[in-house]
Amino acid sequence: MSIPATSNFKLQTSHFRYLTVTAGYWAFTITDGAIRMLVVLYFHQLGYSPFEVAMLFLFYEVFGIITNLVGGWLGARIGLNLTMHIGMALQVVALLMLTVPDPWLSVVYVMAAQALSGIAKDLNKMSAKATVKTLTGEGAGAESKLFKYVAVLTGSKNALKGAGFFVGAALLQAFGFRDALFTLAGGLFLVMVVTVILLPSGVGKMKQKAPFTQVFSNTPAINWLSAARFFLFGARDVWFVVALPVYLYSVLNWEYTAVGGFLALWVIGYGIVQAGAPALIRPNRQGQGPSGRTALLGALVLALVPAGIAWSLTQGPALNWEPAPILIIGLIAFGIVFAINSAVHSYLILAYADADKVALNVGFYYMANAGGRLAGTVLSGLIFQLQGLEGCLWWSTGFVLAAALLSLWLPRTPRAAAVDAAPPQPRLIDADAVVEPTRLAELYAPIAGRVQDCAVREGDAVTAGQALLRIVPTAADAAEHQLAAPWDGEVLRSHVHVEGREVPAQALLLELFDPHSLVLRFSVDGSQALGLAPGQQVRAELAGASGSPVELAITRAWPALEPDTGRRVFEAQLPAQAGFAVGLSARVRVEPAVALQLPAATLEAIPTPTGRAAFVRNAAS
Predict the structure, then answer these.
(1) pLDDT digits (tens, 9 = 90+) for 397-429
(2) Were 180 and a residue from 17, 171, 360, 389 both cysteine, which residue would form a disulfide, CB within 3.0 to 4.6 Å?
(3) Average pLDDT over residues 121-146
(4) Sign of the C-alpha dihedral, residues 332, 335, 338, 340?
């Protein structure tokens, strides 16, 4: 069966946008990994203690929490592409802030620069990952596609963050601290300009402005997953962010490039495994991706790894085990299992998220993610200074077990989460409405000439055959033409503003409408349209109406959903004598008769039952 040209074009456009978003995310991620390695190694070289180095990232994580909380709400209001580009611009500024002379690089100043970098990183990450949800559609088949898209985006991001570790260490050794920062800032700025040109505006905007209170999730599945995410990423960062690189440099005496190269290879491998997670975790027969049970089992397996590394390092001297091989083998095992866990979590948040509130849901989730990183980063420096690397690993084990415990409450499937999260079907559904005529006539100039004797203006009533104006031809051999009304109606718009002005042939002169054809046209979400059908009674209150609401009846229902919005359009006939103005806006409050929630794409195949009355009121009331 051939694919329609329109569908093929949309598919190609979706892939192009996905690749553009991913490429921009890659470029940002390289700078994010590089700046972290630059700060850790350069400030350790300046004599900062491990805890002081950890504190340099305090504002990075604190403002990451705030950014994820507010960023999802901001992305829902102004669009995900704009928030992504704001993040890139802030990262350029943060990189340039660190190029000042060493005497300026106080702890407070560096913390401020890292705060800006934290805001930039989480704006960029939230925007990129939430955009993926908008490109995969809905339905069971889309779940597997979503898992693949998210895994590739996140896995490739982590691989390139590892590359960023190496880039940061290599630039530090080759060019010095400041030249490395200038190089990173210039490259990211160029990428930002390219993505601004290639990506459309408005992606991810909610159809209605999101109130700020919606930044807090009221979906149980998202709340449990966010709490598990907090401990999962705290478990990684509590030993990986500060403790591990400082241990490799100060205890094992590795050089900068060796530390950066090793951590880079680890993160790259971790990213490759994460990108390949869909091949390791196959969708079920219904095409669904991982579930809450997958997250639980993954966390239980992960808890064994840091506990095993800690035990091996403690027993190593007695067993003649060298610490370097223990760390290398342990890190490989931890990276593989952690990557799969992270891929499952990244998929589940988008699978659980409501399509119209994806930016808000993802922002809330990554707020918890940033909180876990904050706790892990602070504890990484503090616990390493007090208890060494082994202590950090035991804390990591405890954090993973906490994530496993919280995963017990995750739904078995994303669809079950959607059912659990769905509030009781609202008895009234708000929708926009407008007064429109269904019978219109447009009168055009049949020849080029001058308009004469225009006898009507907007709002004038006309009768069938009534002379409306004359066209006196400019050509000597042409005959004069007279335009007449085709039927009884009113003048909606007149485009004749100056008597005697020349108009070209086929110029639009007058628009007429039949006042008996006025309807109230409104649309509702396709998944909620089952309770409405032709013949259903509607009560309407519009501007200028007095007394009891006007009783109307729905006279027409569009047979298909609008392809761009997934909404279904309805019309209710208006009385001609009421004098409603064309274009008058209103609000429709629909009370559905059937409390079903189905994927909008399936509704066209289901007969629509007769519903109960709806209530229509003016938007200004």
Answers:
(1) 999 999 999 999 888 655 555 545 454 444 566
(2) 171
(3) 62
(4) negative
User: Is this model's pTM higher than 0.85 or not?
Assistant: no
- Enumerate the H helices of 98-106 as residue ranges: none
Token pair listed for 164:
């960023």
Quote the Cα angle for 482-483-487, to 5°: 140
Helix-helix angle 243-250:358-407, to 10 degrees: 70
CA 238 remoteness from chain centre = 29
Q: What are phi and psi of 307, to 5 degrees?
A: -65, -40
Helix, strand, coil percentages (3-state) for the chain, rounded to 5, are 60, 15, 25
* Cα 127 from Cα 80, distance rounded (Å): 5
Residue-wise DSSP of 508-541: EEEEEE-GGGEEEEEEEEGGGGGG--TT-EEEE-
Query: Are the CB atoms for 574 and 553 separated by under 8 Å?
Result: no
The rounded distance, in Å, linking the Cα atoms of 520 and 137 is 31
Asked if 183 and 27 count as a contact pair (C-beta separation under 8 A), the reply is: no
Q: Which run of H or of E encompasses 387?
A: helix 358-407
Among residues 35, 48, 113, 121, which one has the least CA distance to residue 83? 121
